[in-house]
Amino acid sequence: MTTLQLAKAHYPVTALGPGTRAGIWTQGCTIGCAGCIAHDTWAADPATEADVAVVVSWLASLPGPVDGVTISGGEPFQQPAALGELLTGIHCWRGGRDIDILIYSGYPLSRLQRAAWSARLLALCDAVVAGPYVRARNTGLRWRGSANQQIVPLSTLGARRYPAGAGQPGAAPKLQVSVQGDRTYLIGIPHSGDLDRLAGQLARSGVRVGNVSWRA
User: Fold this and answer.
1) For residue 170, what are the CA distances in angstroms to 6, 17, 51, 67?
2) Which domains does the chain have, with CATH numbers?
């Protein structure tokens, strides 16, 4: 049994890639980009471990439609064995269907391509958004946190779903809201300062915002 430290799984996701998607966020990241909005996914936490087979079964249980799977974090490439098994399981589940796999990484693409083990993992994906988040370069690009990050197609399907220019500004970036118990999750990539402005607006409306993941 291979386990994955899992921060969250959510369906439907419409803010991180084209179409209606399943989202999987890994737990644990040592990169620590300044301005990251997901500090809650940084610390490795054995309590979040889930059997990879259970995650794949969750995908199979979704009512559809599923146009793609987005894997983010945390940093997925810091769990290589589990990530490899997850990607293999997704391939088996999707079969011949055009369900693309988009993966986010804070590592530069050159680093991922240079190491044999991470290049093998990339080969199981259809597209990657690679590079560290740079707060000063958050310019509202589609599906990217900052302008230094690249969207790179890795397969024929990826080239169709993520053609040149797909990540340029177009429609305003979308944020989704997911409520689970006493926690509220925002899914997507906000513009710089959007979340603090949101917290201010809520406070003025009498809604108190407690601990938030975008503040260290």
Assistant:
1) 32, 13, 38, 20
2) 3-204 (3.20.20)
pLDDT in tens, the chain (216 residues): 899 999 999 999 999 999 999 999 999 999 999 988 888 999 999 999 999 999 999 999 999 899 999 999 999 999 999 999 999 999 999 999 999 999 999 999 999 999 999 999 999 999 999 999 998 998 888 899 999 999 999 999 999 999 987 766 655 557 777 777 777 777 877 776 666 666 666 667 776 666 666 555
Distances (CA, A) of 67 to 99, 105, 156: 5, 21, 15
Return the DSSP state at 86.
H
- Look up the pTM and report it: 0.90
Give residue 27's Cα distance to chain centre: 11
Q: What string of DSSP letters covers 114-172?
A: HSHHHHHHHTT-SEEEES---GGG----TT-SSTT-EEEE-SHHHHHHS-TTTTSS-SP
Secondary structure of residue 67 in the 3-state scheme: coil
Q: Are 120 and 84 in contact (CB under 8 A)?
A: yes
The DSSP secondary-structure symbol of 53 reads: H
Q: What's the burial of 97, exposed, middle or buried (CB within 10 Å: 0-12/13-18/19+)?
A: exposed
Tokens 């305003």 locate to 172
The Cα 148–Cα 97 span in angstroms is 32
Which residues in the chain belong to E strands, given as ranges? 3-13, 21-26, 49-51, 68-72, 100-105, 127-130, 150-153, 175-180, 183-188
